[in-house]
Every structure is written in structure tokens, then in C-alpha cells.
Specification:
Elements lengths: L5 E6 L5 H13 L3 E6 L9 H8 L3 E2 L5 H6 L2 H6 L3 E7 L1 H9 L5 H8 L4 E5 L3 H5 L1 H12 L3 E2 L3 E4 L5 E5 L3 H12 L9 E6 L4 E2 L5 E2 L6 H12 L3 E6 L11 E4 L3 H10 L5 E4 L6 E3 L20 E3 L3 H6 L8 E8 L3 H12 L3 E6 L11 E2 L1 E5 L2 E4 L3 E2 H17 L2
Parallel strand pairs: 1-2, 1-4, 2-3, 4-5, 5-6, 9-12, 9-14, 12-13, 14-17, 17-18
Antiparallel strand pairs: 7-8, 10-11, 15-16, 18-20, 19-22, 20-21
Length: about 400
């Protein structure tokens, strides 16, 4: 899809700029012609020489360079591209774009272009979560730009959270989607569940699990990037909402089921949430107190509604493709195969969440995709990459109909 396409890559300031070098290589492997603009901040992290060597093109940096303006004016530079990609997209450059400023080459090109623009944010998690940054991102999305990421994980500053630039291959896939004509899931509606559920014991305490929601949120974003209309039903989490996704926040399993049912009809349902199997039969109206006897209170538990089974066995309103997740600590594939049959879903994604795997709350996952046709063992990948691979597999499924 990228063969012969002309991509203008803008590299702004941030440690993630090192990934842009690999992005250049990946784009050229697919036949794209890549020209690069390096901002003053970007040049603090990668050199013009390394960018030029990989792109095999001149690197543009200065808006007021007479040589560049005589050979390649900034208007021509933006108009000759099929796609503009900003990777990394710093908070500063996104703020300039949202405000329509044009005080350097990169911001001027972005204001002058009439071509699609893909931006990959990368910054400290506090900067990403700041209301000003979120407001700027919403403005850019409303203006018709396309975002990819950021991902979750360890940041160069030593903190952990949202702010990691998407991986080069994820950005390549997004470029292919933007330049490949019709998005493969355009016109399809998807429901994705994510995160844990909280089952109240009293106004203070609850039953829960260690799920972070990272995998479910990534899947919702990946499906949206392929054109799907996505409703994300999310349990309590500390994650940024994926771009282009409708989010419905819930707490309990009963609320999650109600939100899923309210989101029907849908073509796709991906039940990635770690739903609590049990809830307390009667939530105490007041905080439960110790009575000095040394005896713990008796908690009567009742089974929660089975969201995956309910969606899988709907009559008349069942999604065409229902995908479940099986978080197991032993006999992972065997238990997942049995669960797929028991629930009645089409696919089951199995993963080992046992002690020491780091999957619950971590940034990587090792999954096995179980379908009626067999078992696919996927290598260990970042959760964003797992999401992208699953979204592509879903798109391929509908493409073969």
C-alpha cells in the first residue's frame, strides 16, 4: 500500500525521536519515499546526518533557509507529500498546531498542507494528562487529523504511565490504513470491555482484581484505527481514553452488562475485561466495623452475570464475531478451549497471568488465539502490538466473508 507513496516525516523534540530512525527504515522497506523535517528540539536527539542517511533525502530544518526556499519551498514541500507524519509529536508542536501557529518550518508546513496528517504523541505522562494537552488533542482530532497512541509503560524520565510513542510498525500500519483507501472495518460497530470490575462490600470496600485495562484499551484503539465505530465499556482504570472511541465508564459487572446491552447492535464484541465472578449478596449501607470479637463478618457471595456468555448466546441481536479472553494461571490453552465451548463465543484469546508473568498490569502479553479452526501461538509482544495484531485478524475475518 505504501509503494511509491510520498511521506513527509516531521521529527519533533523528545527521546522517542530515536524510534523515528527505525520508522524511516520501515517505511522505505515498503517502497515509500520519505522526506524528513527535523525541528530544533528533534535535532537535540537525532542528527541530520543519521536522518539523511536513512531517508536518502535532504533533511529540512530551517524555514528561512534561502537555499531550501530556492530549491524546495515550504508550500511545495507540504503539497508534494501524500501523507504528513509527526513522530514523535511533542506537546509543544501539538499546541502550535491546535492554535494555528506557524513560527518554524514544521508548524508552517502543517498549517499549509491540504493532505492527511497522522501524529504520534510522545511525552511525560503528566504532560499528556494535562487538560491543555488533552484539549489540544481534541482540537486536532476535530480538525480531521489522525492520532496514534500514546502507549502505556515505562517512560524515559523514570515514571510509568501514558506517553510512550507508538512503535514504528504500528505507525506504518496506520499509514497504510490512511493511504490504502477504505479502512477495512469502516461501517462495522464494535463493543470492547476493558479493565476490572469493582463489587461493593460496603461504601468503602470492594472486591476487585489486578487488571489495569491496558490490553482492552489498546484493542479499542486498534479497532478504531481500522475504521470501526467502537464503544469501550471500561471498568475503573487510570488510562487515557483511546482516540476516536466512545467510552462508557462503569464499576460493577451488572453495570458492564447493562452498558454492553445498551450498545447493541454490534458486529464485533471483544470481552477483554477481567470481570469479577462473584459479588456480595447484600452491600452494607454503612462501613462495616470490627466488633471486638475477633470474628470476621460473614460475606455471602452470589455469582455475577456472565457477560461473555450472554453476548455469545443472544438470539437475534448477537454480534457476528464474539471474542473472549481467558486469563489463566495453569493449563492455559486447555482451560481456554473449554471456556470457548462453554461460553459459546467464536474466538478465545488465552494468556497466562500467573505469578511472575507480569501480565496483569504489565505492558507485554503472550497470547494464544483459539478458534474453531485451531490454535495460533503468538510471540510475546507489547500489548499495543497484540491489539494491532488482533484487530488485523478481525479485519481479515470480515474481509473473507
Amino acid at each position: 500500500m505504501l509503494n511509491g507513496k510520498r511521506i513527509l516525516l516531521i521529527i519533533s523534540g523528545g527521546i522517542a525521536a530515536y524510534k523515528s530512525l527505525d520508522l524511516i527504515r520501515r517505511l522505505k522497506e515498503r517502497g515509500a519515499n520519505v522526506r524528513c523535517v527535523l525541528t530544533a528540539g528533534g535535532a537535540q536527539f537525532v542528527t541530520p546526518l543519521s536522518v539523511a542517511a536513512l531517508s536518502e533525502e535532504a533533511v529540512y530544518q530551517d524555514l528561512f533557509s534561502l537555499k531550501d526556499e530556492s530549491e524546495m519551498g515550504h508550500i511545495r514541500l507540504s503539497r508534494e507529500a501524500d501523507l504528513l507524519v509527526i513522530a514523535p509529536a511533542s506537546a509543544d508542536l501539538m499546541a502550535k498546531m491546535a492554535a494555528g501557529l506557524a513560527d518554524d518550518l514544521a508548524s508552517t508546513l502543517l498549517l499549509a498542507t491540504d493532505k492527511p496528517v497522522l501524529f504520534a504523541p510522545a511525552m511525560n505522562t503528566r504532560m499528556w494528562e494535562h487538560p491543555a494537552t488533552q484539549r489540544n488533542v481534541r482540537t486536532l482530532l476535530d480538525d480531521g487529523l489522525t492520532a496514534i497512541g500514546p502507549g502505556q509503560g515505562d517512560l524515559a524520565c523514570g515514571e510509568v504511565g501514558a506517553g510512550r510513542m507508538s512503535e514504528p510498525l504500528e505507525i506504518v500500519a496506520a499509514c497504510e490504513n490512511l493511504l490504502g483507501g477504505e479502512m477495512p472495518l469502516r461501517g462495522r460497530r464494535a463493543i470492547v470491555t476493558s479493565g476490572p470490575t469493582y463489587e461493593a462490600i460496603d461504601p468503602v470496600r470492594y472486591l476487585a482484581n489486578r487488571s489495569s485495562g491496558k490490553q482492552g484499551h489498546a484493542i479499542a484503539g486498534a479497532l478504531a484505527s481500522l475504521g470501526a465505530e467502537v464503544v469501550l465499556v471500561a471498568g475503573p482504570n487510570n488510562l487515557a481514553d483511546p482516540g476516536g472511541v466512545t467510552v462508557r465508564d462503569i464499576e460493577s459487572a451488572a453495570q458492564m452488562l447493562a452498558a454492553c446491552e445498551a450498545s447493541l447492535p454490534a458486529d464485533i464484541a471483544v470481552c477483554a475485561a477481567a470481570v469479577a465472578d462473584w459479588r456480595v449478596a447484600g452491600e452494607a449501607e454503612q462501613k462495616m466495623k470490627k466488633d471486638g470479637s475477633g470474628q470476621p463478618p460473614a460475606l455471602a457471595l452470589v455469582e455475577n452475570p456472565d457477560i461473555l456468555k450472554t453476548l455469545s448466546q443472544l438470539n437475534g441481536n448477537r454480534p457476528s464475531l464474539v471474542v473472549g479472553f481467558a486469563a489463566e494461571t495453569e493449563k492455559v490453552v486447555d482451560h481456554a478451549k473449554s471456556k470457548r465451548q462453554r461460553k459459546g463465543c467464536d474466538w478465545m484469546v488465552a494468556n497466562d497471568v500467573g505469578a511472575g508473568t507480569g501480565v496483569m498490569g504489565g505492558d507485554e502479553n503472550t497470547v494464544h488465539l483459539i478458534t474453531a479452526q485451531g490454535i495460533e501461538d503468538w510471540p510475546t509482544m507489547a500489548k499495543d502490538a497484540v491489539a494491532a495484531a488482533l484487530a488485523k485478524r478481525i479485519a481479515d475475518h470480515f474481509g473473507s466473508e
